[in-house]
Amino acid sequence: MSRLEIILGAILAVSVLFNLGLIIYVRGSIVRLLSISEELGDLQQMIDSFANHLKAIYEMEMFYGDETLGTLVEHAASFGEYLETFEYIYILTEEPQEEGNLLDDDIDSEEDEKEAEE
């Protein structure tokens, strides 16, 4: 083997090792990003659910007009709106909804609101 073949073989080995390491690193980063995306989406849903529940309690006859609950409702809503700025992250793991599913979601949310009122 000539000296050039040895040098090219060494460069090839280093390049292959570097590329394998890079692939492993990128794969791990993507897995972590998707995990964070799912968790952030779950957090957004929890905050929205909390805000809706709190609003339903505030609208009850017993608590209607309570300043503390009113402020808490506003705070929960603003926190939910702030989390929407991270939508580009948690939208990564959500499946696109079809036209029919949007109608079903509206019906489900209306049923949930009726149950909260009762």
Essential attributes:
118 residues; mainly alpha; 4 helices
Produce a short descriptive summary:
The chain is an all-alpha fold.
Characterise this structure.
The chain has 118 residues and is an all-alpha fold. The chain has a domain at 36-117. Helices cover 81% and strands 0% of the residues. It has helices at 3-58, 67-83, 87-90, 99-117. Helix 1 packs antiparallel against helix 2. The radius of gyration is 26 Å and the shape is rod-shaped.
Shape: rod-shaped
Computed Rg: 26 Å
Uncertain residue segments: 100-104
Cα end-to-end separation: 86 Å
What's the β-strand tally? 0
Order of helices and strands: HHHH
Strand content: under 5%
How can the largest sheet be summarized?
A: none
DSSP summary: helix tally: 4
Helix-strand blueprint:
Elements: H1 3-58, H2 67-83, H3 87-90, H4 99-117
Helix pairs in contact: 1-2
